């Protein structure tokens, strides 16, 4: 166990933001924290990083390193008028670290950025700023990092690239990574474990695939001329362009697909559709 947070609570006046939240994180694993905006994700991360104090509960980080935990809250807090080197030098100094040219090169290489650029960070794309923010978070080699909505504002290619970087840091460097998002799809194929935060409480936690599968009630079947299928018509499928949406009840999705093959239908994809109401405990978020 690299990080253990137990019964964390936090209120602002009469507003109870976190209610006895417990997290147990193991080395080298990726944890996803899913919740709508305002459900306490950023507050929890600030408490884990020691930026604010919890009203109750305890946090234990089992690390012998200089910096047990690092992270990015909301957007990377970079100095836009400085270069990447200038930013890393300032943050390294604030952490008691001497940024040698070798360390600078290693830090940039670790997050997939070039050392050749010397212009101001203001000129960087959002994806590059996220990577540089990660480089700052990784100074002094923390065993655990938290990333608060790291995919916000990124285009699809940027999200894919950041996914791959996060997986690499977890697998090759054995860093424990905790990521928050309000978009389920951003964490579906990334995390080992998902925690569902709703109303300041973790209402569900478990293997990502298992939680999401339990919350699937509808499937999107993609193919040509699906509206002509007697199988799909018989189960009241909803047709849209080259897709059909089905909500199996008396028959499983595998049986539906088998019948479509027997019917001679060309199916190119079957995509599970997560029911957010079911995922969040049947309550409105």
List keywords for this structure.
285 residues; alpha/beta; Rossmann fold; Alpha-Beta Plaits; 2 domains; six-stranded mixed beta sheet; 9 helices; 13 strands; 30% helix; globular
Topology:
Elements: E1 3-12, E2 15-25, E3 30-34, H1 41-48, E4 56-61, E5 69-72, H2 84-94, H3 101-110, H4 126-137, E6 144-148, H5 156-173, E7 176-181, E8 193-198, E9 201-207, H6 208-214, E10 216-223, H7 230-234, E11 238-240, E12 243-246, H8 253-262, E13 267-274, H9 276-279
Parallel strand pairs: 3-7, 3-8, 5-6, 6-7
Antiparallel strand pairs: 1-2, 1-4, 8-9, 10-12, 10-13, 11-12
Q: How many strands, which pairing sense, and closed or not: the largest β-sheet?
A: 6 strands, mixed
Which series of helices and strands comes N to C?
Answer: EEEHEEHHHEHEEEHEHEEHEH
Distance between the termini: 31 Å
Work out the radius of gyration.
Answer: 22 Å
Low-confidence region ranges: none
User: Helix coverage percent of residues?
Assistant: 25-40%
Count of DSSP helices?
9
Walk across the major sheet and give the strand order: 5-6-7-3-8-9
């Amino acid at each position: 166990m690299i990080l253990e947070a137990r019964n964390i609570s936090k209120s602002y006046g009469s507003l109870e933001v976190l209610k006895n939240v417990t997290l147990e994180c193991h080395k080298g694993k990726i944890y996803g924290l899913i919740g709508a905006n305002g459900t306490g994700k950023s507050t929890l991360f600030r408490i884990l990083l020691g930026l604010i104090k919890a009203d109750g509960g305890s946090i234990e980080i089992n690390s012998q390193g200089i910096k047990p935990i690092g992270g990015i809250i909301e957007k990377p807090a970079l100095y836009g008028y400085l270069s990447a080197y200038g930013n890393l030098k300032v943050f390294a100094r604030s952490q008691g670290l001497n940024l040698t040219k070798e360390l600078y090169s290693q830090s940039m290489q670790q997050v997939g950025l070039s050392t050749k650029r010397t212009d101001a960070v203001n000129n960087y794309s959002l994806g590059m700023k996220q990577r540089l923010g990660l480089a700052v978070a990784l100074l002094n080699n923390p065993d655990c990092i938290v990333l608060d909505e790291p995919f916000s504002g990124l285009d699809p290619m940027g999200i894919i690239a950041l996914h791959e970087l996060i997986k690499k840091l977890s697998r090759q460097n054995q860093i424990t990574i905790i990521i928050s998002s309000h978009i389920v799809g951003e964490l579906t194929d990334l995390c080992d474990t998902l925690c569902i935060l709703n109303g300041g409480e973790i209402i569900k936690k478990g293997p990502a695939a298992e939680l999401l599968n339990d919350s699937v009630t509808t499937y999107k079947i993609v193919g040509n001329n699906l509206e002509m299928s007697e199988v799909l018509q018989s189960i009241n499928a909803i047709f849209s362009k080259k897709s059909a949406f089905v909500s199996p009840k008396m028959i499983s999705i595998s049986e539906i697909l088998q019948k479509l093959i027997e019917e001679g239908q060309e199916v190119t994809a079957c995509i599970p559709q997560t029911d957010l109401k079911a995922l969040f405990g049947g309550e409105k978020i």
